[in-house]
């Protein structure tokens, strides 16, 4: 089914992230599934999104929320079947919604047949060459091969019964693959084709800058020019090969690329590599006018040399919910600072999240919306006995983990039957069926904003021009007279001259734009 997409839809798309396990429960067992997603496709069409990005729905022991994949060609039975996935792709496309799937190339599950075979085959075997097995250091090999830092807290090496150690930048259940091995490259290209043949329009690449490792596995030295496992030059040959596969089908890539160096970041977006990459500087930026403007400028400057569109996102399945984060004293995001009991002002956070929605949706390029953001969901406090995220346990219980943004969505005032993560008391207030009839709700704001973005000129890919504005105010022009103004100052400010008010994130005060409020205008 190698049907080519004929346009550059991805350059301006609004893409909705579906965390299947928590989206909608079709069979009442407390776990979200594909039947639930299929039942909610009309909701997603009414919301007005162009594509759905599904976090991993493959067979997995769920040691890390599905990012430990045991079989890319099988849907996890908790979610449904391959036949259901194929129906979902078709049914969504009939509603004008494309499908993006997640590929996790850095590692597999320790339950994957490759790794099980490697354990059984023993030291020096061809099966072990697909991973990073090494003898240990010390007199009896009792020390790990090196002291590389983990992407989670904890160790990066685990010793097996025969004495060798294997590398895992994440959990021990996620052994890293050896991307210098041709079989690893062939397998992943086959997986890409498998899903493109089923009508998938794109692939999100998890931890895209981590695949290649220095074959000598040297110690990590902070500040050295060439990192032993992040952003190595060998990666670009891998992604050029992937791009050739995607081009056969007219499919696209979005990479999860966390890099502080803008020039290195832009290399992944060259015309023969990835189409887009996530913009983490904007996601983690505090609610501060000067810093947001700098983040926007830096993002656009990074993308300009390679002609790639920027991406904008406020939250995802790893990051504290926007409403909660923007209500805190520290409105930025950093994994290292996450702690239990951090206070937040949800009223303030909600007002800022509404304004941030209009800001992000007005910027040039594509935008990603994490499920539940359109409902204004806060970060949930998970009771200690119910926490499941390995980040929590590997931190010794210091980090609350990511479960708080992964709680099942409240579709109605009645909670899910025995949900896999508990829905907090009081979440009936956020229920989609209640918000749907309230013109002042967060859901109504997102529906209206996405409709305007899709039907009015000036949105999506293109240029941006900053306008003169008071200190603490962001104001910029897009094409066809479109204007976006966001007030982050302490006092209300006058609106600039305009012909029409298209949308406001909150009520205006005597023609003035209140603090923490945004508007779309037509000049």
From TrEMBL:
<protein>
    <submittedName>
        <fullName>Alpha-glucosidase</fullName>
    </submittedName>
</protein>
<dbReference type="InterPro" id="IPR006047">
    <property type="entry name" value="GH13_cat_dom"/>
</dbReference>
<dbReference type="InterPro" id="IPR045857">
    <property type="entry name" value="O16G_dom_2"/>
</dbReference>
<dbReference type="InterPro" id="IPR017853">
    <property type="entry name" value="GH"/>
</dbReference>
<feature type="domain" description="Glycosyl hydrolase family 13 catalytic">
    <location>
        <begin position="17"/>
        <end position="406"/>
    </location>
</feature>
<dbReference type="Pfam" id="PF00128">
    <property type="entry name" value="Alpha-amylase"/>
</dbReference>
<comment type="similarity">
    <text>Belongs to the glycosyl hydrolase 13 family.</text>
</comment>
């Amino acid at each position: 089914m190698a049907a080519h997409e004929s346009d550059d839809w991805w350059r301006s798309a609004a893409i909705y992230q579906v965390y299947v396990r928590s989206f909608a429960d079709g069979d009442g067992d407390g776990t979200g599934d594909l039947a639930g997603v299929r039942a909610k496709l009309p909701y997603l069409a009414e919301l007005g999104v162009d594509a759905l990005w599904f976090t991993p729905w493959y067979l997995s022991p769920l040691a890390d929320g599905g990012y430990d994949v045991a079989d890319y060609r099988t849907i996890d039975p908790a979610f449904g079947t391959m036949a259901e996935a194929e129906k979902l792709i078709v049914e969504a496309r009939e509603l004008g919604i494309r499908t993006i799937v997640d590929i996790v190339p850095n590692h597999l599950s320790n339950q994957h047949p490759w790794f099980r075979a490697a354990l059984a085959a023993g030291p020096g075997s061809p099966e072990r060459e697909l991973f990073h097995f090494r003898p240990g250091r010390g007199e009896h090999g009792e020390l790990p091969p090196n002291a590389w830092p983990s992407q989670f807290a904890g160790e990066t090496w685990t010793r097996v019964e025969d004495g060798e150690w294997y590398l895992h930048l994440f959990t021990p259940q996620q052994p890293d693959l050896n991307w210098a091995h041709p079989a690893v490259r062939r397998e992943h290209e086959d997986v890409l084709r498998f899903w493109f043949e089923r009508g998938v329009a794109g692939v999100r690449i998890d931890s895209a800058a981590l695949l290649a490792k220095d074959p000598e596995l040297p110690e990590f030295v902070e500040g050295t020019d060439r990192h032993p496992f992040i952003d190595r030059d060998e990666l670009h040959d891998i992604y050029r090969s992937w791009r050739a596969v995607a081009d056969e089908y007219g499919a696209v890539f979005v990479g999860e690329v966390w890099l502080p160096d803008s020039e290195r970041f832009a290399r992944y977006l060259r015309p023969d590599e990835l189409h887009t990459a996530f913009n983490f500087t904007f996601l983690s930026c505090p609610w501060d006018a000067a810093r947001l403007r700098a983040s926007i400028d830096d993002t656009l400057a990074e993308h300009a040399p390679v002609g790639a569109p920027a991406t904008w996102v406020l939250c995802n399945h790893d990051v504290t919910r926007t409403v909660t984060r923007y209500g805190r004293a520290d409105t930025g995001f950093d994994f290292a600072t996450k702690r239990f009991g951090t206070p937040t002002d949800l009223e303030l956070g909600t007002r800022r999240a509404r304004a941030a929605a209009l800001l992000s949706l007005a910027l040039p390029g594509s935008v990603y919306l994490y499920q539940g953001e359109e409902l204004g969901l806060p970060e949930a406090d998970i009771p200690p006995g119910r926490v499941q995220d390995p980040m929590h346990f590997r931190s010794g219980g210091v980090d609350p983990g990511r479960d708080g943004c992964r709680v099942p969505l409240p579709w109605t005032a009645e909670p899910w039957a025995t949900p896999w993560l508990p829905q907090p008391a009081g979440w009936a207030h956020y229920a989609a069926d209640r918000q749907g009839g309230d013109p002042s709700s967060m859901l109504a704001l997102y529906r209206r904003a996405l409709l305007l973005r899709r039907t009015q000129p000036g949105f999506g890919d293109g240029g941006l021009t900053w306008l003169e504005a008071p200190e603490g105010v962001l104001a910029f022009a897009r094409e066809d007279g479109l204007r976006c103004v966001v007030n982050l100052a302490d006092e209300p400010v006058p609106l600039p001259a305009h012909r029409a008010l298209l949308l406001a994130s909150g009520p205006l005060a005597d023609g003035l734009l209140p603090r923490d409020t945004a508007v779309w205008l037509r000049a």
